[in-house]
Each structure stands twice: as C-alpha cells, then as structure tokens.
Design a protein that fits this description.
Layout lengths: L1 E2 L6 E3 L5 E3 L7 E3 L6 E5 L2 E5 L7 E4 L5
C-alpha cells in the first residue's frame, strides 16, 4: 500500500485510443509486490507501477 506521489499522462491502447491515468496524486492505493519497480531515493522507498496494475484505491483526495 502506498500514496501516489506522481503520475504520467496515460497511454495509447493497441487500437490507437488514449487512455488517461485513473490514479491521482494523493490517492492511497494497493499495488502488487511482484511486478512493481522498487527504488530507494534519498532515504525513501518508491515503487513504479503501471496504472492498470493498481489492485485497489483505498482513499482518494476527494473522499478524505
């Protein structure tokens, strides 16, 4: 589980349609342990994962 600190703009589908990212900065999400990229930066641990790999959104900025 972690807090979204940044997102990209989205991705292109195989049919050429743009799919925007559903997660927003500040959301608390569940991500898979395997398949995410783990990075240590300035003493903090970050994970990079594709939007479609997010298992669940626990809390969003809107429902705080």
């Amino acid at each position: 589980m972690g807090e979204v600190v940044a997102t990209g703009p989205g991705r292109q589908s195989e049919f050429g349609q743009f799919i925007r990212v559903n997660a927003k900065v500040g959301d608390i999400v569940l991500i898979p342990k395997i398949g995410s990229i783990r990075i240590d930066f300035e003493g903090e641990e970050f994970f990079i994962t594709a939007d479609r790999e997010i298992l669940a959104t626990i809390k969003t900025e809107e429902n705080e």
